[in-house]
Design a protein that fits this description.
Blueprint lengths: L5 H10 L1 E4 L5 H17 L26 H4 L5 E5 L4 E5 L6 E3 L7 E6 L1 H4 L1 H7 L2 H9 L5 E11 L7 E4 L7 E2 L4 E6 L10 E4 L13 E5 L6 E5 L22 E3 L7 E5 L4 E3 L8 E10 L5 E2 L13 E2 L3
Antiparallel strand pairs: 1-14, 2-5, 3-4, 5-6, 6-16, 6-18, 7-15, 8-17, 9-14, 9-16, 10-13, 10-15, 11-12
C-alpha cells in the first residue's frame, strides 16, 4: 500500500494522531541510534554555551524560555541542548560555568534542528518517497520539512514536555503542521511516553491555536504571544464547544520502530522520565509550502536562504 489507507486517514482526522507500527526497519533503527550515540560522544563541551532546553511550564506564558543565539540560529545546524536537571545548582568555582552532574552523553535533552539535511542516516529516514506518499495521503501539496531533532529522554532526568500544540511553535497561515515522530526505543507508560488528547485538534474540542511561540520583537529571546491569525487548518469548523477532558487523554504504548503522526493542533505532552530506561525518539515536522499558506516571520525557527527542504528531493 502506497501512503495511508482510507481507514488510517479517517483515524488521523478523528483522533489527531496515528500510530504506524514497524514503520522503520531494524536496520534503520540501528543506524539512527548509532548516529545518535556518535553525535553525543563527539561534540565538544569547550566552546558550548551549555544552553538548556525549556519552553516554560506550559501554563505561564511569562515563564523562562530558551532563546539564546545558539538556539535561534540552529535551524540549519546540528546543535546540542541540555536537560536543566543535568547541572549542579551552583556554578563551578574554577570556570564560573554550570557543572554537569552526568556524563555529557547522558545530559543532553535534544539534538537539533537540521538532522534531516546534515546527517546522512537521518536524511535517509526523512526525505524519501515513503514519507512523501504519507504526506500526500494527508492532503499536502508541497510538503516541506523543518525542525528535525532527536529527543533524548535520559534515565531519571529526562524532563517533562508540558501540554502543547505543535502549530504554536511552527505557525503557518493557516495552520498546516504535522509531526513525524519515530520511536527509536520503546516509549511506554513509565518511561515518559506520549500522552495524546483524542480529538483535541478539532474546533469543538478547543483545538484552536490561541497562542504562539515567537522571537521577541527586539530579537533578544523568545516569548508566547496571542495568535491573531487563523486558528484552525483549512476546512475545519471554527466552532468552539469545550476543551479536552481527562477522559480524552490516551497514554500511548509505542514500540521501537513505530511512527506517530501528530496533527499540529492536537494537544499532547510527555512526563518526566523517572525510569531507569532511556526513551530516544527522532522527529521532524512537515508544513504546507504551496501557495495559499504562509510561514510566519516571527516563528522562532526561520528558513535558510534556500528555503525549507522538500519532503521528496
Amino acid at each position: 500500500m502506497v501512503g495511508l489507507t482510507p481507514e488510517q486517514v479517517t483515524s488521523f482526522q478523528e483522533n489527531g494522531y496515528l500510530v504506524l507500527p514497524d514503520y522503520l526497519s531494524p536496520e534503520e533503527i540501528t543506524s539512527a541510534l548509532t548516529e545518535t550515540n556518535t553525535l553525543l560522544d563527539t561534540f565538544s563541551l569547550e566552546s558550548h554555551p551549555l544552553t538548556q532546553f525549556t519552553t516554560g511550564d506550559g501554563e505561564d506564558d511569562d515563564a523562562d524560555h530558551v532563546g539564546d543565539d545558539y538556539f535561534l540560529t540552529s535551524g540549519d545546524k546540528i546543535r546540542y541542548f541540555f536537560e536543566p536537571d543535568a547541572f549542579t545548582t551552583e556554578p563551578d568555582p574554577l570556570t564560573g560555568r554550570p557543572a554537569l552532574i552526568k556524563p555529557k552523553n547522558l545530559a543532553v535533552n535534544k539534538i537539533g534542528h537540521s538532522l534531516h539535511t546534515l546527517s546522512p542516516p537521518f536524511k535517509a529516514i526523512s526525505l524519501n518517497q515513503r514519507n512523501a506518499d504519507v504526506a500526500k495521503s494527508l492532503g499536502f501539496k508541497d510538503p516541506r520539512v523543518l525542525q528535525s531533532m532527536v529527543i533524548l529522554k535520559q534515565p531519571s532526568i529526562g524532563g517533562a514536555v508540558p501540554a502543547h500544540r505543535d502549530s504554536e511553535f511552527l505557525y503557518t497561515d493557516p495552520p498546516s503542521a504535522v509531526g513525524w515522530w519515530y520511536a527509536l526505543q520503546d516509549a511506554r507508560p513509565g518511561n515518559a511516553t506520549l500522552g495524546m488528547w483524542k480529538g483535541s485538534h478539532k474546533g469543538a474540542k478547543g483545538g484552536h491555536i490561541t497562542r504562539r511561540f515567537v522571537r521577541k520583537v527586539d530579537g533578544a529571546g523568545t516569548e508566547f504571544v496571542e495568535n491573531t491569525g487563523p486558528a484552525l487548518p483549512k476546512g475545519m469548523e471554527e466552532e468552539k464547544v469545550s476543551g479536552p477532558s481527562d477522559e480524552d487523554l490516551e497514554i500511548l504504548d509505542i514500540k521501537a520502530g513505530s511512527l506517530v503522526l501528530i496533527h499540529g493542533n492536537v494537544l499532547h505532552k510527555s512526563e518526566k522520565n523517572t525510569s531507569p530506561n532511556s526513551r530516544f525518539a527522532y522527529t521532524f515536522h512537515v508544513i504546507e509550502g504551496a501557495e495559499g499558506w504562509e510561514y510566519d516571520r516571527r516563528n522562532w525557527l526561520q528558513p535558510p536562504e534556500e528555503g525549507f527542504s522538500r519532503l521528496l528531493q
